[in-house]
Design a protein that fits this description.
The chain is mostly helical. The chain has one domain. Helix content is 93%, strand content 0%. It contains 2 helices and no strands. Helix 1 packs across helix 2. It starts with a helix and ends with a helix. 0% of the residues are buried.
């Protein structure tokens, strides 16, 4: 009768080993799936970084263009308001009262 319990333990040990082997196979399969997912996410992250850098560079270029355009507009507006003063100061024979009316007429016409 001693052989029966040993055989039962042997069968339980074999079942335990088979269950362990199956669990290990599942873990390996899950690990492979996770590695593939990590690779896909790393690739997506790399793509998103490239897109973010492209957007950043585009905004920087656009900002530089806006700054340049604003400077040109500022210079043009400054030149518009300087021209009447320079024109009126270039003819010293006009009295001061006439100079201001010439400037007022030119700004009203504009």
């Amino acid at each position: 009768m001693r052989e029966a319990p040993a055989q039962v333990n042997y069968e339980q040990d074999v079942e335990l080993l088979l269950a362990s082997a199956n669990a290990i196979e599942r873990l390996i399969t899950e690990r492979r799936a996770l590695r593939h997912r990590v690779s896909a996410l790393e690739s997506e992250l790399k793509s998103l970084r490239q897109q973010a850098n492209l957007v950043h560079d585009s905004y920087r270029t656009l900002t530089d263009e806006f700054v340049m355009q604003f400077k040109l507009i500022d210079n043009a507006v400054g030149n518009i308001f300087r021209e009447p003063e320079e024109a009126s100061s270039s003819s010293p024979e006009q009295p001061a009262a006439e100079k201001s009316t010439d400037y007022d007429r030119s700004s009203a016409a504009a």
